[in-house]
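Technical annex B. To support the medicinal chemistry partners, we prepared a structural model of the target in complex with nicotinamide-adenine-dinucleotide, based solely on the information shown next.
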Amino acid sequence: LEHKTAIIGLGYVGLPLALLAKQKGLDVIGIDVDERKLKLINAGVSPFTDEDVTNALKSATPPLSVTSDTAAMADRDTLVVCVPTPVDATYTPDLGPVIGACTGIAKVLHKGQLVIIESTINPGVCDEIIVPLLEKQSGLTCGKDFYLAHCPERINPGDEKWHVGNIARVVGGYDPKSLQLAVAFYQKVITGSVKPMGSLKEAEAVKVVENSFRDVNIAFVNELAMSFTKLGIDVVNVIDGAATKPFAFMPHYPGAGVGGHCIPVDPYYLIEYAKKNGFDHKFLSIARNINNGMPAFVVERVAEALRTANLTLKGAKVAVLGLSYKPNVGDLRESPSLEIIDELKLSGADVAVHDPYVTKFDGAPSTFSGEVVFGETAAISGNDILQTIAGADAVIVATNHREYSDLLPDDFLAVGVKAVIDGRNCLNKDAFEASEIIYEGVGR
Ligand SMILES: NC(=O)c1ccc[n+]([C@@H]2O[C@H](COP(=O)([O-])OP(=O)(O)OC[C@H]3O[C@@H](n4cnc5c(N)ncnc54)[C@H](O)[C@@H]3O)[C@@H](O)[C@H]2O)c1
């Protein structure tokens, strides 16, 4: 194949891939249903905060060609699907976008085309849903007329070392030819290694397993954090101690909750598929429940700290530093901060928030009101941390943004703050404990 490529879904996964493939000399078009996003990309602007994407969009000559017209896929030989795979409010996997994208593909599908699914899907989705859908609607046969592969994306937005170009990949194919064509595509585009898997199902399972691995490990240390709070042991010191063991221990750290489009979502895809096939993944479900409970645990710690200051959550002013789910990016998807804010409001607290990376509330749940300074509805104050925390009774550091870790007790004392809850264990604990501030970490 020449790898004349269409990338379908231009989000955190699809847009960097489209830009990289273009840089590697491939003829690429991007397809998305979101006209607002297409407009921004056409104007050379990244729809999300990402320096690499911003630079690549600026330097792309000619600019990356994008459209919402799925007919543009017809003259492509390689179609890469990068649409979202979320869960709904009851944590049930929603394959709607994948089915939507594949239905669009089926309409233009013709002999010789290679379809690659990059979206995270549970084992069985390719064989049981995508192949029948593509074959039925096109009248073609997979492995004979067209080819299908799965290559789960592993991109970690904001990571300075690992990016779409150098992360190793695994690929599963419907048949040997599908596998060979897809491996050749990735070998053209990335410098990371490409490992062929034995089947589509194996490749699908790799992704849900690696993210479940992370979820389970984080749940373990989160449980330790809750236990050690009662036992009066600093869990971070213990983990750092255990990490001196040169084999068979891998440090993970507790925190205010697990967010993003992957870790708190992907395990449900495996749990649900196993359940349909008669297996109950108890371990994964417990891990999910523990991690989902961390925002509530942090709010409890705030209440406890306020009690020490003879205050109650009801009527207290609480500032939340950090809205996004991870440091130094503006991604709000499944962010524990939003849960924390909701819980605080339900308890009757007056909430202010600060996040220098978030400029919009797209993606926030509809219950999120957008109030960001005490008492008033206003725009996010952006870079003025001190203005946000001024007059707060308690402050929660909910995201480990680089702007927060250097804050010192005096910064808080100067504006009247009584308690600081370090939801990411990123502040200098010793300095806070030596001050008049009531300090609580997560498990320390
Ligand atoms: N974000 C990450 O860090 C990450 C990492 C690895 C894997 N993944 C997986 O990759 C997939 C994509 O994630 P993302 O973060 O890029 O999502 P995203 O929401 O940022 O982007 C997905 C894009 O697909 C578009 N879209 C939805 N339905 C469409 C359709 N029918 N046709 C064309 N476009 C459509 C949306 O408008 C959106 O722009 C998911 O399965 C996710 O689990 C994400």
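Notes passed to the chemistry partners:
The radius of gyration is 24 Å.
The mean pLDDT is 93.
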